[in-house]
Amino acid sequence: MDMPSYTFVSPRKTREMHNHHFDSTVWNDFRFRDDDIVIATYAKSGTTWTQQIVGQLLFDGREDLNVAEMSPWVDLRVPPKEVKLPAIEAQAHRRFLKTHLPVDALVFSPKAKYIYIARDGRDVVMSMYNHHANANELWYQALNDAPGRVGDPIGRPPASIRQYFQEWLARDGHPFWPFWENVRSWWAVRHLPNVMLLHFSELKADMPGQIRRIAEFLSIPIDELRFPAIVEHCTFDYMKKNATKSVPLGGAFWDGGAETFINRGTNGRWHDVLMACDSLAYEERARRELGEDCARWLATGNRDDDRTAAALAA
């Protein structure tokens, strides 16, 4: 099956996205630096993990990094851009920023480096349900009651995770934002020299190797004496124990605090939740929306163009 037509010769912003979370207009007033790093995901795909890795690389494995504060989510509605942009502008270190937007809702810099992390959508929903079901009243107030919201408020999730998944699939990302266009847009620009695709499964299988790959892409030299500390500080156990440094507002938005946000960091939990028909419907939808190659990569982390490059190098 051919991939649907969704390609970018030169990425440019063509639309705005607004909802209970997004205000994409923040990027219109953002002033890039040439060495900026943008960490992009749909959500619940390894965002915080990748932010932790980049922070550890930039600061040589330091213990005291408040990554949540250092690496803001630029397109989140709160705080408003009048507060957020001056704070980002004041950062003196090499900036590493977060976005959940598709490429065509971003202002795209030809010099900044972009890392896009993906994860099988079934795993995304399992993690998203934990995130949503444990959100407290402060979370709902911040998103729904703050001025500037466009569209419907976000409500509480159903008790059934399977129902949550079925609604997410049928309504393309409900109640958060569209899933397929997000993956499709970043896949379409994967060959750009300042874009790197990363997969959650790759990080799980070989985190030290992927950390080195990220460092090379970002042109960050590794101090080999500090590399064991960098790896240790990016493990799930370490991040869980120090979750208040990685999670927005130290986890104040979730019952159980920051450790609830970090959750389990595992794949495949959907096998115990979904029926075979649910999984089949997802797989068919993935092929239809993304094409065979991208759908395979999303499910496994394996890319045909990776194998082709390896064969040419051999």
SSE layout and pairings?
Blueprint: E1 37-41, H1 47-58, H2 67-70, H3 81-89, E2 96-99, E3 113-118, H4 121-133, H5 137-144, H6 161-170, H7 180-188, E4 195-199, H8 200-205, H9 207-218, H10 227-233, H11 236-241, H12 258-262, H13 276-290, H14 292-300, H15 304-313
Parallel strand pairs: 1-2, 1-3, 3-4
Radius of gyration: 19 Å
Order of helices and strands: EHHHEEHHHHEHHHHHHHH
Which fold name is given in CATH as the topology?
A: Rossmann fold
| Named CATH architecture | 3-Layer(aba) Sandwich
Number of separate helices = 15
Question: Mind explaining what this structure looks like?
Answer:
- The protein is α/β, with parallel strands linked by helices and 314 residues long.
- It has helices at residues 47-58, 67-70, 81-89, 121-133, 137-144, 161-170, 180-188, 200-205, 207-218, 227-233, 236-241, 258-262, 276-290, 292-300, 304-313, and strands at residues 37-41, 96-99, 113-118, 195-199.
- The protein has 15 helices and four strands.
- The chain has a four-stranded parallel β-sheet, with helices on both faces.
- The model is unreliable at 1-8 and 307-314 (pLDDT under 50).
Observed structural traits:
single chain, 314 residues, alpha/beta, Rossmann fold, four-stranded parallel β-sheet, 15 helices, 43% helix, disordered C terminus, sulfotransferase activity, P-loop_NTPase, transferase, Sulfotransferase, Sulfotransferase_dom
Quick rundown:
The chain has a single domain (24-313), classed as P-loop containing nucleotide triphosphate hydrolases (Rossmann fold).
